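Format notes (please read before filing issues)

Several people have asked whether sequences and structure tokens are stored in separate files. They are not. Every record keeps both together, in the order shown below: the sequence lines, then the token lines. Line labels are part of the format and must not be stripped during preprocessing.
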Amino acid sequence: MATVERPERAMVVFAHPDDEIGCAGTIASWTKQGTGVCLVLCTNGDKGTEDLEMTPDRLAQIRAKEQRDAATALGVSDLVMLGYPDGELEDTREFRGKLVREIRRFRPQVVFTHAPVAVTRHNHHDHRICGAVTLDAVYPYARDPWHYVELTRGGFQPHKVATVLLWGGDNPDVFFDITETLPTKVEAMMRHHSQFGRPNRDPNRQPGDFMREGARRQGERAGLQYAEAFSKLEFRV
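Then the structure lines:
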């Protein structure tokens, strides 16, 4: 089983408002211990509803506020919202450059993002693109000065990320104990009220029960009560 030391700075790059929940327990633990964290949200989540009376523009505004509230719950003040339309992330030079800019600006040692490939289940298109483009932004584009030279000349100097942690993959090898921060993870999830505020169909279930069950299952794999699981990629620095 791999290990990762708590860094001074960590970045989370995620596709939709609420996707940061994939690592929220770990982030809550790290921020309490002094790690600086930047959240980079790629889309505005404007299509994440079944309500035909809700307009995309209105939903995007709601979800932006929910994301700010969730970041506050996790102890994060550095929130970047790139604003791409929900469902329309693509592997473009523009998108990659925006991630390179944020990596060079914030200079994290650890980056969290979606696993771009999962064999055992289908990943949302935006999740796959977000994960793949983030990995490319980390290496080689953020590292090498002649990639996005306009950023280099504009003061965003190259930066080497040491570790990427992917959530949602098939074979995780890093497990973080989130027993103490699971309530914060659930609280952050519930700040995304438009997504998780619906009444439970089962009156015996409480908000966040599915998240607790998932954390318990991951914990069992590592001898912990509750855990989050990631696949680790290391880069030379």
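For reference, the curators noted about this record: The longest helix spans residues 56-73. DSSP finds eight helices and seven strands in the chain.
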